[in-house]
Amino acid sequence: MINPIQKIIDTPIRNKLILMFVAVIVPVFCAGVYLIINMNNILQSSVVNEAFSEVETIQQRLKDTIYTTSAAAEKIYYDETINALINNDFTSTQEYRDFYNHNDPVSKYEQAYSQVVDISFYIDIDDFIYNSDFRSISPEIRESYWFTDAMSSRVPRWQVIQNPIDKNVYLSYARQVFTSKGKSAGVMVVYTSPEWIENLMSDQIFNIIFTVQNGMVFYSNMEEYSLGNVFTSPDFDFQLGNSETKKLGMESPLTDKGYTVATYFDYENTGNLFQIYLVKPYTIINEKTSNLTTVYIWYVSLCFILSILITILFTSFFTRRIQLLRDEMHKVAMGDFNLNAELKGDDEINELYTDLKLMVDSMQKLINEAYEAKIQSEAFKLNQKEAEFKTLASQINPHFLYNTLETIRMKAYCNNDKETATLVKKLGKFMRRCLEVKDSMVPLESELEFTKSYLELQSARFGDRVSYSIYCEVDVNYIVLPLIIQPIVENAFVHGIESSKSNGVIKIKIYYKGNNVIIDVIDNGQGIPDDKMSELRWKLQVNDTSSGKSIGLTNVNKRIKMYHGEEYGLSISSELGKGTRMTLTLPRNVDDTDVIKKNLIEKNVRR
């Protein structure tokens, strides 16, 4: 059975490209035809369904809002304190005032219900003391439509009423109030908050009008249909007890503004008719067309992307093998002759890879022969150098040197030259320490004694021109690398004190600083010029020991960093004409793990 993937791999590149173009063009063409045929049907159906669904949702929200406000108004209507005020027959003005001072029955409801803006009682009772909540019925109010409508019914009436205080128009709950004897006392009006109604439309992007009773507008987001005006549609009939949702005809003043649907309902069969007009602007319809066009573009783009992916799928077999061949050739160029990859197929790439393996095998054979010859040559040279070194080393006998220095010291002592004898003795101790230094760590006390011997020899050399001091607050058993302080002190003598005309002072301070041990070597020499300081800091940074200058400093810095880490080492600060400070920073705690690490580092360095 022929493997189809293998068949594609073996296909010539030209045929592969033709196949890629076909894979791109066919899906795009089919997608374009399909979308053009179905675009109009999808748009019409979507607009109609959304409009009817949205108006039904808004109707239910409006019902919930009216129900919530009605419940609050009912609680106010039956409030015992308010009814007591309306029914009590006070005999004097003072009794009314005492009642008002001890009772504020209206304000607590205005504060308790956010959907209520104001509550007013328009009453007509003899000798009644009125205030901002309980108002007398003026002739203008008595003749108003909403007052007449409320007084003609015992059930609540929803009307659009202007508040005489702020002159704003509100959707209001109006209900006739009675005395305990069944006599009409006036009308209670609860003004509904416009913000409470606007919250219904916070997430909507279409135009809408709310009307009540005879078409009085109590909400509109269309400027030409303002609150308090009357809006009616000639082709929409209102019938009590019914609820209907339909599309408005061509005679509606809203149909020229967009796709319009309307609905109405009789709230709890109380004769309170609410109408809702929803207008889907043609801009939204056009936007949907634009959106559908965008979808079409995305679909076409998706087809292109899919085509590209298919193209990548086909070409990946080709490019992967080219990449593999290139990587293997790069390995050979870098000196790695281990070709472990396998190329499948029977085309030119496989032939190139086969030839590459044959060439590498031939090169490997030639290199192995040359390498073995070079190893033999280097081994011969190494043996010769080792022999020369042993011959040279055998000529140096440390014991002969110590004995000779001791003979000179005794000769000077016998000749009463005690100063020379002392110096020779110190020199012998100093040289013995130099020759006996090993790779192992030493106590701080031993390193300080060695440095002190060097200072004493230099003091004998310079006489009164040089003085020194050593201050140490660190435990003398603290473990340090050997020969890290003396090279710093020697540098201070050579570069700072010798060329100075004034008396030289060298101070060694060893102290704790946080988690570190600090060793400061301070001299009052001539200082270091800026150009030499830059060169010296650069050498310390890169650990340059290629030249003989400052090799002791770079050696100390390099050994500390190799042993303890890059955050430790030597730093230098100097001021021309005033002296130099060299600071060694070491870790406060040194344990056996550091020693093991040091040994591993030194083994790698030797290799």
Calculate the mean pLDDT score and round it. Answer: 76
Output the CATH homologous superfamily of the largest domain.
PAS domain
- At the first level of CATH, the class of the largest domain is Alpha Beta
User: What is the correct CATH architecture of the largest domain?
Assistant: 2-Layer Sandwich
| Helicity level | 40-55%
- Count of individual domains: 3
The N- to C-terminal Cα distance equals 58 Å
Q: Low-confidence parts lasting 5 or more residues at pLDDT below 50?
A: 386-397, 592-607
Lateral strand order in the biggest sheet: 2-1-5-4-3
Rg (CA only) = 53 Å
What would you call the structural class?
A: alpha+beta
Number of helical segments? Answer: 17
Tell me the major beta sheet.
Answer: 5 strands, mixed
* Secondary structure: number of strands: 17
**Shape designation:** elongated
Q: How large is the share of residues in beta strands?
A: 15-25%
Kindly identify the CATH topology of the largest domain. Answer: Beta-Lactamase
